[in-house]
Amino acid sequence: MEFRTVVSLQKPDFRIEPLESILFVGSCFADSIGRRFREEHFPVLVNPDGVMYNPMSVLHTVQRSDAAPRIAFLTLGTNHVYRLKETGEIVDNCQKRPHNLFQEEQLSIEQCVDSLSQTVEILLTRRSDVQVILTVSPIRYAKYGFHESQLSKAVLLLAADQMTKNYESVSYFPAYEIVLDELRDYRFYQPDMLHPSPQAVEYIWQQLVDVYFSDRAKQFLAEWRPIKEALAHRPFHPESEAYQCFLEDAKNKEKALLLKYNNKV
Fold first, then answer.
1. Phi, psi (5° rounding) for residue 172?
2. Other C-beta atoms within 10 Å of 141: how many?
3. Model pLDDT, residue 96
4. I need a labelling partner for 35 at 20 to 30 A (CA). Which of 10, 47, 74, 138 fits?
5. By the 8 A CB rule, do 72 and 40 touch?
6. What is the pTM of this model?
7. Contact at 8 Å (CB) between 244 and 233?
8. Stretch 121-150: mean pLDDT
9. For residue 34, how many C-alpha atoms fall within 13 Å in the half-sphere facing its CB?
10. Could you write out the three-class secondary structure of 58-87?
11. Quick one: residue 89, left, alpha or beta (phi over 0 = left, psi -120 to 50 = alpha)?
12. CA separation for the pair 76, 127 (Å, rounded)
């Protein structure tokens, strides 16, 4: 008997290789997953202009960046945007300026698709074989009210679905569904009851590995794990000769492993 709802994951036609450069742009959920990739020695670029929550701000980040990755994760948090009344410009960060200087608006499905399409076209121009993975952040926005938050997520989900139909190079990873359906228990949330816990992020990471990583990338993780644990070890006597030898050995193994799996992807 199954006591939970398991989200079905579809494997794409491409695979992530070990030590591959990856771009992450989007909400703080993108920060969490990007950090997990970085811990595994992937040279990732995560939110170079800071956290971005809506599709238009994601577009602005990609426009300003010169990154040309083969793999790009775009994590959407909300369809709400803020327009500076003085200029009419949609801003990516209010920079703690008074709220009355801005007008809050909601992007339609069509506007979200338009911003995401421009983003994908820019990435395709820089690298024709780019693969864009869209996700919707499972973090709810209590400040909107939970019904309004769900409506916002629905707009993003519909826009993401349309993008997968419009572009062969765009796929969707159901992080939102995994947290809300498969991990629907408050033990998988941080104390604020809104953000996924480290355990939930780790579970999503494992699902990403299973779906997107090549066999060689999975083998790299398996070989890196004991070295990573050795480097993280904190002894009672770090100044001892025995520990220094242990540490040097771990660092030499790390260098050898990176040399073995070095890719020019």
1. -120, 130
2. 18
3. 77
4. 10
5. no
6. 0.91
7. no
8. 92
9. 26
10. HHHHHHHCCCCCCEEEEEECCCEEEEECCC
11. beta
12. 22
